[in-house]
Amino acid sequence: DTAVSQTPKYLVTQMGNDKSIKCEQNLGHDTMYWYKQDSKKFLKIMFSYNNKELIINETVPNRFSPKSPDKAHLNLHINSLELGDSAVYFCASSQVSGAAVVLTFGAGSRLTVL
Amino acid sequence: AQRVTQPEKLLSVFKGAPVELKCNYSYSGSPELFWYVQYSRQRLQLLLRHISRESIKGFTADLNKGETSFHLKKPFAQEEDSAMYYCALSPSGFSSNDYKLSFGAGTTVTVRA
Questions:
Q1: Which end of chain A has the lower number of beta carbons within 10 A, N or C?
Q2: Which of residues 70-109 of A touch B (CB under 8 A)?
Q3: Residue pLDDT, tens place only, A48-84
Q4: What count of other Cβ atoms lies within 10 Å of the Cβ of residue A69?
Q5: CB distance B44–A105 less than 8 Å?
């Protein structure tokens, strides 16, 4: 019954490879996000989609490409992986509640680039 | 631009002692403020939001617009409160930027027996 699920949970790969992380939410939310948590635990937004439409695209290398086939799914594809891409990537979804956005997070996908 | 500052990276308290996590923000409009918590090996989850004015797990937080602060407090810390705490800000309104929840750097709280 997981509300926001991400796969894989762990990913270890070599520099230069291409990898994808998938995210699905069953909450019926309209908006989904990708956040990156670095080694210092700093959490930063990368992308946001609202009803399959990109609405937030922070300063992220274009090696990162999000794709939202429908509003329940938001995948993250990363090309030519670099050492600095090692982090925990969190997917989240939200529905506007009153005047504010409340996020529900996935468990995270820990990416290690060797 | 919106910004959230948590000046303390680490906070260690004894069980039963009060704990206060500081959060300051900068935002030109009227923000919504939140505290999120990440327990060990668990996902990040909402702890409380300022508009609810509620106490969750003994924690409270008051929005002080004059000081642009949203400090999190608990009078008697418990060992199960050990976790990473993030203060977060969301603009209130109806533009695409309203979906941009910005987080502080986080504070790791350790409650010792």
A1: N
A2: 90, 94, 96, 98-108
A3: 888 888 888 887 899 999 999 998 999 999 999 999 9
A4: 9
A5: yes
